[in-house]
Design a protein that fits this description.
The complex is a heterodimer of chains A (507) and B (100). Chain A is α+β, with helices and mostly antiparallel strands and 507 residues long. Helix content of chain A is 38%, strand content 20%. Chain A folds into 3 domains: 293 residues, no CATH class; 119 residues, no CATH class; 58 residues, Orthogonal Bundle (Arc Repressor Mutant, subunit A), CATH 1.10.10.410. In chain A, strands 3-7-8-11-1-12-13-14-15 form a 9-stranded mixed sheet. Helix content of chain B is 35%, strand content 8%. Chain B contains 3 helices and 3 strands. Chain B has a two-stranded antiparallel sheet with strand order 2-3. In chain B, a hairpin with a 2-residue loop joins β2 and β3. Chain B is flat and about 55 Å long. Classes of the chains: A alpha+beta (507), B mainly alpha (100).
Chain lengths: 507, 100
């Protein structure tokens, strides 16, 4: 397959990285996939809903309202903890993080502070410089805030508008150790984490929809030194690409300040994607003072071995395990395995097609899935209940591969059949019959067409004979066109070469 | 004697978004120090053999299933709002970003 990688964001000059070592820690907030909120029964299906239609006394923080813990949200964090090799706390509790802001109706956020549900985990991911493992300090559970919209009233007053639909939605915070050393690794960590969260079914983790929010703590230190430099928190990145760009920008900005002898200040900076730069959001003059204390409205939570084993038994295959199974057991290349595992539609199709016909060579299935099928996945948003693209079915995709392998269908025609099947869901046999596709592999049946194409394209023939063997590709294309894609490309190429390689006078 | 300074009191007041006069700060400085002195007396008790507790009711693992319950209508939710704009609650303008 031919995958074109997007041009990498502008990197930091090597001269900067020779002198300074970036030290980066990443904090991710992700919304958990539950039907109801963290501490009340309000629906979490509020995306696109009118404001303040998903609220109740609990998530509005009305006096006397009491929270109750959503079991599934707890299990999602346990699942995540197991997936990142973390230690699960046997007993955990809830704490109040106190601050005043209009998006927080109670004046505190129920969170976990002293004892997170999961601690001391790790995540491994590939980068252009090889595999990197990043330590994960903690994963804990908390509640989301309301949403503020800034507006001006008709009489010219600046106001904020509050929508409490998101208030109290379950949120998981995952914090890494300061182990990340480059902007690329920061992006790759976020990508791999998204893949993992989706694979284990705990979050949709869509960055553009705010279901996954990535913040990076960036500092520099002179190469060869240990002490951490002044840390700057960067937020408001709403794509993986902007994570990489923002961190790169921050590394350069901090290096320039340090080179100029200007002291850095501890601050929070926002990423402006349009300008491609960060800007100051607020100074952290005093250390954060949230006055955490145990939440008296909620009893402590004990996670015993029985419960944890139940969660472990339901744990889906992790991306790392799947990639290594695809390479070691099924013989895929590391590249194909990474491409397929990274895409839910390709992943679903690959396993479903192989399950439908285990006799198919995995490499052939991978070529289809990562190739034409993968391209269709980008064009067509519709998915079947099994996660396949459009209206396709695993049994029909297997049938398509069998017909190609049996020489009944040319690859060019197979591509058309695939496109039609994915769109309509119609059976491969029906499409082939209706279109009259039948691969022509008999060289004598192709002989006339090959001669006609050679006669009609003297320029290409000349090029070939002048030492440009790639001209044969153009001629194969012409034969395919003349046979409506039904010719066996291999047979055509052999027939063309056989004629072209004869001494010129005999043609 | 507890030694909470005037600045400490002003800091705590700021965190609670309370605007206090100098007179109030002075009065609260005395009161808060008095409260801390009472805690200092409690802190003399030997609690080494007692596990820390944040709960007086001996319950644990009170969980609910992930089931949706009906929500308020916007009119119910906004019944006590000081000002509305459609179904939004209007509050004074907030500059800067949200926590967390």
């Amino acid at each position: 397959m031919t995958a074109v990688r997007a041009a990498p964001p502008t990197g930091v000059p090597a001269s900067v990285l020779e002198r300074y070592e970036p030290v980066i820690g990443i904090e991710v907030h992700c919304q958990l996939r539950t039907a109801s909120k963290m501490f009340c029964g309000c629906s979490t299906d509020y995306d696109g809903a009118p404001p303040n239609t998903h609220t109740c006394p609990v998530c509005l923080g009305l006096p006397g309202a009491l929270p109750t813990i959503n079991r599934l949200a707890v299990e999602h964090v346990l699942t995540t903890g197991l997936a990142i090799d973390a230690t699960i706390a046997a007993t955990t509790r809830w704490e109040r993080k106190n601050y005043f802001y209009p998006d927080l109706p109670k004046g505190y956020q129920i969170s976990q502070y002293a004892i997170p549900l999961a601690a001391a985990g790790r995540l491994t991911f590939g980068t252009s410089g090889g595999d990197v493992t990043v330590g994960i300090t903690r994963a804990h559970l908390e509640e989301d805030t309301a949403k503020l919209v800034h507006a001006t009233t008709p009489d010219g007053r600046k106001v904020s508008l509050v929508d409490f639909n998101r208030s109290g939605a379950p949120l998981m915070e995952i914090v890494t150790e300061p182990d990340v050393r480059s902007a690329e690794a920061a992006r790759r960590y976020a990508e791999e984490l998204q893949l993992l969260l989706r694979a284990i079914g705990v979050s949709n983790a869509d960055m553009e929809r705010g279901q996954m929010r990535v913040e990076a703590n960036v500092s520099l230190r002179p190469r060869g030194t240990e002490a951490f430099g002044t840390r700057v928190e960067v937020k408001n990145m709403n794509s993986f690409r902007s994570v990489e760009r923002a961190v790169n920008f921050e590394i350069e900005r901090q290096a320039a300040a340090l080179d100029a002898g200007q002291p850095l200040v501890q601050e929070t900076r926002g990423w402006d994607d349009g300008r491609g730069s960060t800007y100051q959001m607020r100074l952290k003059e005093t250390s954060e003072d949230y006055r955490y204390f145990p939440e008296p409205d909620l009893p402590p939570l004990k996670v015993d071995a029985v419960w944890l084993d139940e969660v472990r038994a339901r744990l889906a295959e992790l991306p790392t395990a799947r990639r290594s199974r695809y390479t070691s057991e099924l013989g895929l290349s590391a590249y194909d395995a990474a491409v397929i595992v990274a895409d839910p539609a390709m992943s679903a199709a690959f396993s479903a097609v192989l399950a439908s016909d285990p006799s198919l060579p995995p490499k052939e299935v991978a070529n289809l899935v990562a190739g034409d099928y993968g391209r269709a996945a980008k064009e067509i948003q519709e998915r079947t209940p099994d996660g396949l693209v459009g209206r396709s079915s695993a049994a029909e995709l297997a049938e398509l591969l069998r017909r190609v392998a049996a020489g009944e269908l040319s690859r060019a025609n197979a591509k058309e059949v695939l496109g039609e099947h994915v769109r309509s869901g119609e059976a491969v046999s029906g499409i082939v019959a209706a279109r009259g596709f039948r691969q022509i592999s008999d060289a004598s049946a192709l002989s006339d067409v090959v001669d006609e194409v050679l006669a009609a394209n003297p320029a290409a023939v000349g090029d070939y004979r002048a030492g440009k063997p790639q001209a044969v590709g153009f001629l194969v294309g012409q034969v395919m066109k003349a046979t409506r894609g039904q010719a066996n490309a291999g047979v055509v190429q052999a027939a063309l070469r056989e004629r072209l390689d004869r001494p010129a006078g005999d043609a | 004697m507890a030694t909470l300074s005037r600045d400490d009191v002003a800091h705590v007041a700021h965190l609670a978004r309370l605007g206090l006069t100098d007179e109030e700060l002075a009065r609260l400085e005395g009161q808060l120090n008095h409260i801390l002195d009472q805690y200092a007396i409690l802190a003399q008790l030997d609690t080494d053999a007692i596990p820390p507790t944040a709960q007086t009711i001996e319950l644990e693992n009170i969980l609910r299933d992930d089931v949706v319950q009906p929500s308020f209508t916007p009119d119910e939710a906004l019944a006590n709002a000081p000002e509305r704009d459609g179904d939004f609650i209007v509050v004074p303008p907030i500059i800067g970003d949200s926590e967390p």
